[in-house]
Design brief:
The structure is a homodimer of 229-residue chains. The first copy, chain A, is of the alpha/beta class. Chain A has one domain: Vaccinia Virus protein VP39 (Rossmann fold), CATH 3.40.50. The first copy, chain A, is built from 9 helices and 11 strands. The longest helix of chain A has 11 residues. Chain A is globular, with a radius of gyration of 18 Å. In chain A, β2, α4 and β3 form a beta-alpha-beta unit. A 7-stranded mixed β-sheet of chain A has the order 3-2-1-4-5-11-10, sandwiched between helices. A two-stranded antiparallel ribbon of chain A has the order 6-7. Chain A has a two-stranded antiparallel ribbon with strand order 8-9. At the A-B interface, β7, α7, β10 and α9 of A face β7, α7, β10 and α9 of B.
């Protein structure tokens, strides 16, 4: 299951896109941060180790939060069980909203983005990763072989937004496919200014250390975005 | 060849993405406009019919410009043979830069975007379409059939930016693949503010009138972007 993934066992160090996501963050020193989909709390603890003033970690999974709490001894980190579909945040209470691979599970993205926008101070940052729509779109997401025997990734149903049910790690996990344009325009519509859009791929050094990441050069699996209120 | 395409024969009315691209434009009334890759001049004439003050149409093809001139009788439209790789524009001389399906032929995108940015007035608009990177990325761009016999589009080599040689309409046409992130970040780096990002797909009405457009729901062929200086 999920707890056996490199990113669960090793935390941020086990997530190959983390160096790129970190590069999009402002200096977290002194910031008030909310982590949407905090899982085991890796980012919450990293933020505090790097000087964040306080961190609120939110997740739907009570199981994950139990482990997050067990691995955290820091009064400036608070964990709270929350369904992002119903998220409420105090106005202007945060300088940074962070989210790693959680927003593609959210059906009502516009509602969530409006809540995050209101919850940030003017100039506050929203930095997040989601599964890339190229990765999610197809009816049968999985490598195919082209006429010359090489790996290629299928894209179809791209404009058909909405539910995608996969059987990765657990049966019947529901994700929500949105075009890249839809996600970016939803941010713009709520008043965010886009700062950076990255379709993550491995560096040469990462590829040398982890040859299996070559797949990630063929099609992007992660989309990283930074925006400011 | 190109002159037999619907968009060449019927102009803007033959380009299914035109209504979406038009929706991204500011009111052109009174604007000074430059059209990067004007082809037969359809957009230049449309802009004047809609009240533009003056339009400068630029294209590399002398043949296209000859036809553009022959079909235009309007002193406020000027056509000029120009290689976009070497584009120079007077500072702050334009209120709108427009480009339809030309920038993916440009190798030095950063240089071009810097020139366009300088050529616009503060608040001036840059609205363009290019071939979508999902459409361009693969070594073998063309429909495949999945295990259930359905149409799917291959994506590979996505992170491998640079030349793509195709044999569509003419042999050995060279285009430049860039990830969507690269194109958007290049705009941001030059100081543009992103206003809208659209991965074009047909409306229900277009699909009813042109059933062959169903393909365009499976994978986006065009990327439409609007930005402001």
């Amino acid at each position: 299951g999920y707890s056996q993934l490199a990113r669960s066992l090793k935390g941020l160090a086990g997530a190959p896109e983390w160096p790129s996501l970190r590069a999009l963050l402002p200096d977290v020193k002194g910031l008030r941060i909310v982590d949407l989909g905090c899982g085991f709390g890796w980012f919450c603890r990293w933020a505090r180790e790097n000087g964040a003033a306080q961190v609120l970690g939110l997740d739907l999974s009570a199981k994950m939060l139990t482990r997050a709490k067990a691995e955290t001894s820091d009064d400036a980190i608070t964990y709270q069980r929350t369904d992002l579909e119903r998220l409420e945040l105090p106005d202007g209470a945060f300088d940074l909203a962070f989210s790693s691979l959680a927003l593609h599970y959210v059906e009502e993205l516009d509602r969530l983005l409006a809540t995050v926008h209101r919850g940030l101070t003017p100039g506050g940052w929203f930095v997040f990763s989601i599964e890339h729509p190229i990765f999610m779109a197809s009816r049968q997401p999985g490598w195919m072989t082209d006429s010359e025997g090489r790996r290629t990734w299928p894209v179809d149903s791209y404009q058909l937004e909405g539910k995608r049910t996969t059987h990765w790690l657990a049966d019947g996990v529901v994700k929500y496919h949105r075009t890249l344009g839809t996600t970016l325009n939803a941010l713009l519509r709520q008043g965010f200014t886009l700062r950076h859009v990255e379709e993550w791929g491995p560096t040469d050094a990462q590829l040398a250390a982890h040859p299996e990441l070559a797949e990630e050069r063929d099609r992007p699996m992660f989309l990283l975005v930074s925006a400011q209120r």
